[in-house]
């Protein structure tokens, strides 16, 4: 058995136009909002600089004589207390920059 084809014709002519054109696409792209603003990136950069300063403070100076162990140089205030506080402050600035809107 052969299948019959049914053709339906109408008198009305209708055209379907695409709803999205190039200009609509560019408007849609321009209206998108960035996650971070310029000020957020500046805060992130400042936080990274503060963390780098804290890492630099953690470096202990070399002793004058390598045969003599001086605990006051290696375990002084700067590398054990000040540097971690500065690094944590830098991390706090980074968290602030991420959540700032």
For the termini, the CA-CA separation is 70 Å
Largest sheet: none
Shape descriptor: elongated
Strand content: under 5%
**Mean pLDDT across residues:** 80
How many H/I helical runs? 4
In the predicted model, the low-confidence regions spanning at least 5 consecutive residues are: none
Count of beta strands: 0
**What order do the SSEs take from the amino end to the carboxyl end, as H and E?**
HHHH
Helix content: 55-70%
- C-alpha Rg (nearest Å): 33 Å
Helix/strand-derived category reads mainly alpha
Summarize the structure.
56% of the residues lie in helices and 0% in strands. The protein is mainly alpha-helical and 101 residues long.
List the helices and strands and how they pair.
Layout: H1 22-30, H2 38-58, H3 71-74, H4 77-99
Helix pairs in contact: 2-4
